[in-house]
Fold this sequence. Notes:
mainly alpha, 2 strands, 2% strand, 12 helices, two-stranded antiparallel ribbon, disordered N terminus
Amino acid sequence: xxxxxxxxxxxxxxxxxxxxxxxxxxxxxxxxxxxxxxxxxxxxxxxxxxxxxxxxxxxxxxxxxxxxxxxxxxxxxxxxxxxxxxxxxxxxxxxxxxxxxxxxxxxxxxxxxxxxxxxxxxxxxxxxxxxxxxxxxxxxxxxxxxxxxxxxxxxxxxxxxxxxxxxxxxxxxxxxxxxxxxxxxxxxxxxxxxxxxxxxxxxxxxxxxxxxxxxxxxxxxxxxxxxxxxxxxxxxxxxxxxxxxxxxxxxxxxxxxxxxxxxx
Length: 264
């Protein structure tokens, strides 16, 4: 009764103390496992960069006007963002509400589902903004020319990471068991990962694959990072808008999915 009265007395949505409380809890909790999380989120994309960059790079010297190492080095940022946002959001969210009952404890405080989802997504996106820069730093060490535009890469990674974090929370909210994630990884994330323009240009793919690539939010991240390194394009404002729209859409869907799940 006291909890219900406290919530009824609240005036606004997304109140700063509630968001801050959830974020501080995540930071404190992250300090106990940051090594393993950082390892899994950065090493695999870096291996992709080194394997494809130097493997195919020995066979293909230029792709779309760039050296292949530079092409893959900028594109792999999106891979790191995906690995450090969608996957932790899916598995972490499901474990927290299904097994650990962490969300039940948080919602007993003056925090609602909208604030909980928003804080979780912001935290995961912040990590993705940092982890996404690791492949770029590796590419710089292997010959990618430095450019002032690269300072925008953490922001691009954050925007993309927020959308994919909300996507992962949505999946967790609708999933009946953790085994259901296999369908999403195999049927959704893997195809989108392959048609994002990370490892090869989309112009030589079948028309249907090009269409999928053009509506792929991960593709927008790849393009913006690549343009940050090699020069901005006129349509990049629209690409940023597309990432923002994707993030806002998935944010609202994630809130709906988790509200439905936690009420049940």
